[in-house]
Amino acid sequence: MTVEAPTLADPHDWLRRRSRWSVFEIAFWVASLLPFFLFQTYLPLASQIAITALFAVSVDLVLGYAGVVTLGHAMFFGLGAYSAGLISKAGWGEPLTGLIIAGLFAGLVGYIASFIIVRVQHLALIMITLGFCLLTYELANSMSWLTGGTDGLQGVETWPILGVFRFDLWGYAAYGYALAALFLGLVLSRRIVHSSFGLSLRGIRENVRRMPAIGSDYRGHLQKIYTISAVMAGCAGALLTQTTDTVSLDTLSFQRSADVVVMLVLGGTGRLYGAVVGTIIFMVARDQLSDMNPQYWYFWIGLLLMVVVLLMPRGILGSLAQLARRRD
């Protein structure tokens, strides 16, 4: 009797299956249009959520998929914000080109920084990324002649999108613009993580020392994803500038980097939509709790974070996916 050897699954076929759009994803994007019709008073908040979600997705690419723990990604967010603001102040307020230039500038800085990032690990990596953020913050603060310092950058004025859609107080154009950018960012991120490059990133996250043994250029992969992540973070910062016509030092603060890590923990790292879900929960909770208690609302955020970590250590989406697998 001949026993046939089990056939190995084709990784390309597995990636193709994973890259298909699920019903839940389509339902999410349909639901994202509801603020236009049902929650018009919350459109400014919704645009802020979309911008921050794009920033959270950029961090998830390096933290959740490549295992690069960073506490300084606000540096790229702030660089994108100031770049878009300075371009507009110089007399060119066209939003799309400003967005692209700001993202490319943040990506260039990210590429330069990646040569240091790939050479350190663990605690040293956290300290290096945090140091980058603090240095950039103090540099922007000291260069008040360029950045406005603690007063923020003044004179920012963004032109209508495509010369038609003007940014208004109600936030229709701002939300549509931010939502479109988030959608494109997620499409690009899905393409990355559901590719052979994405599999290499997962391998680096699980065991970086074994990757050279199978011929993987792990440093090159880390540099690529760190640069891509910096571009996305810079675009998120530019979106904030263009939709609010303001730039402040807060865009470069450590608090912004810490908040986005909290969002990823809430939603679940290594899951692109976990970054979006975590952002929605965090920012809606912050909006409601700050109205209830303007001084001590972080207490409730901390309590929420502790409950999620203790009961759902993989984050909300990660734990729900685990429950679904057990049920199946």
From TrEMBL:
Keyword field: Cell membrane, Membrane, Transmembrane, Transmembrane helix
Broad class of where this protein is predominantly found: membrane
Topology within the bilayer: Multi-pass membrane protein
CDD domains to which the protein is assigned, alphabetical: TM_PBP1_LivM_like (cd06581)
Pfam families reported in the protein's UniProt record: BPD_transp_2
InterPro entries: ABC_transp_permease (IPR001851), LivM-like (IPR043428)
Record-level Gene Ontology MF annotations: branched-chain amino acid transmembrane transporter activity
Transmembrane segments: 20-39, 51-76, 96-118, 123-140, 169-188, 260-285, 297-317
Domain of life: Bacteria
GO CC terms in record: plasma membrane
Record localization: Cell membrane
Name by which UniProt lists this protein: Branched-chain amino acid transport system permease protein
